[in-house]
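Below is how a single chain appears once it has passed through the pipeline. First comes the sequence as given, then the structure the pipeline wrote out for it. We keep one example in the README because the format questions we get most often are answered faster by looking than by reading.
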Amino acid sequence: MGLKGKLIASIEVKCEGHSIHDIVHTNTHHLPNIIPSVLNHFEIHEGETIKVGSVVSWKFNQDGKEMLLKEKIESIDLEKKSTTWKVIGGNMLELYDSFTIITSSEHQWTTVTLMYEKKTEDTPEPLTLLGVFIIGLKDIESHLLK
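Resulting structure:
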């Protein structure tokens, strides 16, 4: 079968993981200004800035195309600096039946986990999206180190 998958990328950062967690989870509305090469737009549709149950959307660049992710925040663990986002709309659901993104930060490490179920065997692994996250995290780190 092979329809379910999980991709994980952990990046060592020089600015401490809690700083990246703060930008991504507390000052999220600033991200389009911090990483404009990746992220074009962030909007809160329901709830407050990064609270469980909030619904947010992101417009980002992937392979030269503008993509949309609409997500509901399923869980937040402040101690582990982890947030779980369930994709509920946008381009990813054209290829995947389900898609969940988990971001976490610990000491010098920031981790992105993509868990998904492909619609068909021919659906590609979301490696390009994982690359977008890596570029974004490195750009956030550069911003914080200025």
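Residues 127-145 form the longest helix (19 residues).

See the next section for the split statistics.
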